[in-house]
Amino acid sequence: MSVANADGHTDLVRQSGLTVIALHVAYATATTVGFLNLTNADEPNSDPWFAAMEWLIILLGPPVLVLLSALHSVSGVRRPWSLAALVLAGIAFALSAALHSVLLAVGRHHALVSEGGLLSFTWPSAAYAIDILAWDGFFAVALLCCAMALRATPDMGRARWAFAFAGLAALAGLAGPISGTMTLRNIGIVGYAVIFPVAVGLVLHAFPLRNDA
Known about the structure:
This protein is mostly helical. Helices cover 69% and strands 0% of the residues.
């Protein structure tokens, strides 16, 4: 796959990719600052950091889908795999955005969201199950499809492997709910919150700074 002439989609790939990376950095910052402001490390992050994290998850969906759509239109990509990645990611973000919108509307102090509630993130709960289905299920497979869509060429080889590792790690997060040891889900979080933006960065590195089409 050559990206020297990327069929006019270079700018869109770069803009959406940079937005994806920026939102991941913002999410990591909100998570870290919120954690540092806790008086008890076992408590969830307090507002405004909790609300910021919820909004950033919702905002992440559109640029990821734009990025995958732009990649699907680039010559040299295996289009059946890139289309599958786009559809699966769309399902993942639809589930995730709906869930986190409800959490924002209800409020973190509502009985449904507090520990043991239907929308709590204490396993087992409906909210936790939907979140796992979205990220460790649909999005994990979407990342693997991204790896299959990119060809193992010198310019995209590292990005291809990064997407594969991200997808496998995200799938490994399913070990948490399956075993009942939810700390194992952190493996999945590393996949889609750490390795995935690295894979996006490697894709951007393979594209020229200007659209040469």
